[in-house]
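Submission checklist for the structure archive. All mandatory fields must be present; incomplete records are returned to the submitter.

[x] Identifier: Glutathione S-transferase kappa
[x] Organism: Cladophialophora chaetospira
[x] Residue count: 223
[x] Sequence attached
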Amino acid sequence: MPEPLVLDVYYSFRSPFCYLATPRLSSWQEKYNIKIRLRPILPLVVRKPQFFQKANSMMVDYHNMDAHRVAEHLGLPFPGRWADPDPVVVELVDGVQTMGQQQPYIFRLTYLGVLAEERGCGIQFAKEVSSLIWSTKDWHQGVQLAEAVERAGLDLVEMDQVIEREAARLREVVDANQDSLTAAGHWGVPVVVFNDEPFFGQDRLDMVLWRLKQHGLKEGNED
């Protein structure tokens, strides 16, 4: 069998559009001779909090509406308005989203994503955890996260222990992912990069598949 085609997937656990893309990406890895490398990055509100001070005030409401519409079209569950709790704790200051000082979720989720990829289960982890976040109220409580991680073939306790020891290294990986995304020519998520060509948005996945087929994409059991 030839070497698999490699896709870099830049991903934020706060993005509903990453969640909406993940089942299709996961199914590709099962069906086709491809390798997906999950490249977690921090959300825009963490990386560039000033962005929302300058953005059109209608942007957030439109994105929420569109995410609900896409979820309905794809037959995927979606919360009433947004993930609850939001993976990034935000405060509204004069109607503008501002990152709160205490962030108990997003750094942990992002570092867990890095570790999952290092253990060869990146896209499986993203599928299970993003589905939990975006379809379950109080997703952070009890054993729900641990069970989602286990469904991806991983151990949350072990991974949390690594985060405690290696938080600085993991942040370097996340920052390197962001630099790599910038070098590829984009800033947002989800972005799929194939052969240095970026494809932005869950609505570009059909185009990614089209490009892969131009490069000889075959199903996994084909020679």
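[x] Structure attached
Curator remark: The chain has a mean pLDDT of 92. The domain at 5-43+104-214 is CATH 3.40.30.10 (Glutaredoxin).
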